[in-house]
Specification:
The chain has about 180 residues and is α/β, with parallel strands linked by helices. The chain has three helices and eight strands. Helices cover about 15% and strands about 35% of the residues. The longest helix has 18 residues, at about 5-20.
Amino acid sequence: MKMKTPLLVMLLFLSAPLFIMSPAASAPLTLRAGGQVREFRLTDSALTYEFVKGEPTTAWAYNNQVLGPALRVREGDLVRVSFSNNLPAPTTIHWHGVNVPTSMDGVPDISQPPVKRGGTFTYEFVAAPAGTRWYHAHFTEHQQLRLGLYAPLIIEPRDEDTRYNRKYTITFAEWSPDALHPDHN
């Protein structure tokens, strides 16, 4: 069993430049018929939050919101997210369940370098496939997710005939007050 892990890590390491240097990763993105350019700004930062009334604790959040802001787009839209990192640690954003170019996938040191404190990165992709997705931190996830770095990403179908009076997004997650502790894993 100990032999498989170094082999897997070596295969990932060796294949990383192939993904980053792939012509498809640098190909220009184009809107699908009827699509629009949708631009968002996300800034992560630490803040004090009361998950339990009267017990303030440190949380990490996108745009000072725990849960981060829901991003709602239509299938085929060109999504451009300008991200700024104000955390004391590097991070990236992963677009879970979305068909993004490898260079936009948010896997640190594989598809992009981590965004350091004070750094910025612009994510750009065509929204597909339709569905309820989510975006989240992808750097030391065991810590950053448990501190609050996640939010919904809704990709509505382009040709949706059904209209609704109200739409609700319900997000369940685990939060850990120990996530900042050095021994937390």
